[in-house]
Automatic annotation (TrEMBL):
<feature type="domain" description="SIS">
    <location>
        <begin position="193"/>
        <end position="326"/>
    </location>
</feature>
<protein>
    <submittedName>
        <fullName>SIS domain-containing protein</fullName>
    </submittedName>
</protein>
<keyword id="KW-0808">Transferase</keyword>
<keyword id="KW-0032">Aminotransferase</keyword>
<dbReference type="InterPro" id="IPR035466">
    <property type="entry name" value="GlmS/AgaS_SIS"/>
</dbReference>
<keyword id="KW-0677">Repeat</keyword>
<dbReference type="InterPro" id="IPR046348">
    <property type="entry name" value="SIS_dom_sf"/>
</dbReference>
<dbReference type="InterPro" id="IPR035490">
    <property type="entry name" value="GlmS/FrlB_SIS"/>
</dbReference>
<feature type="domain" description="SIS">
    <location>
        <begin position="29"/>
        <end position="171"/>
    </location>
</feature>
<dbReference type="InterPro" id="IPR001347">
    <property type="entry name" value="SIS_dom"/>
</dbReference>
<dbReference type="Pfam" id="PF01380">
    <property type="entry name" value="SIS"/>
</dbReference>
Amino acid sequence: MTTAMARETFEIPDAAERLLADAGPFAAAAAALARHPAPFAVICGRGSSGHAGVYLRYLIETRLGIVVSHTAPSVVTNYRKSSAMRGALFVVISQSGRSPDLVAATEAARESGALTLALVNVTASPVAEAAQLVVPLHAGPELAVAATKSVVSSMLAGARLVAEIAGDAELSGALVRSPERLRAALALDWQGWREALPQARAAFVAARGYGFGPAREIALKLSETLRLPALGYSAAELRHGPRAAIDRDTPVLALRQHDATAETVDGLVDDLRAAGESVFLAGGERSALPWIGDDHPACDPVAMLVPAYLAIERAARAMGLDPDSPPFLKKVTETL
């Protein structure tokens, strides 16, 4: 049986090509910010889109050098308060563009004087209409309730946006290579980690920096698709208090990119291996899971989502679960 989740994961490289080929929206955003440089940025998104926002936060702070805040839509919708955002860059990330709280938060940010930009898969949507600038994700329709290709597109859109604003030729070049690397990642079978999941009582995903958003995204997919309690942690934090919750029945997936954060991830993996815990490293020369080889540290963790999604989909089928329709999950989260 071929599931929608599997089919849509295999569509990720084509979606990435469509996104990156549409240069106009990125150029428009960069031009707007060149005219009115933002003193800070605010990111708004929930669930998988929120994880894309975590990824974008690291890109903005490391590549643009401005501070980033994550805003909670409930500040506007429940507490009826607006924040002072004059001159800020407000980025809302949404797959459907129809979540009422994201619409309200975007409208409030615009009214407060922020430059509002939507990364959205459905451009004919209320969120897109509320924003001044729109970057289409070009992921195409998603039938599986748990998003895959739109999440990868959201992260790549954030990277493309930052590369354009910063004039970062190195990151831009890595993005050009990313569709082919995503295609290569489709051939990776993270069998060892996949086979550890059905027997697990909980799971952890660890990373740092650019990998933290993808780590949290993988943890979410474990919880909603496999009904497995899972948490995404900073590799630095997981070596301290939360380490007490790890044993052989709680597999740890560690994502490693080749940058200044690698030492911390390596240290966590070494500690867990020495203690005989169930740990699986992705990335780097010591990768225990099949990997396509390191490239740009900002792009590699996004490519790691592909084999993780495929492993979770296969584990779900092996457990007799439907990865396309997790219980209690809706395509559009209607929250106010």
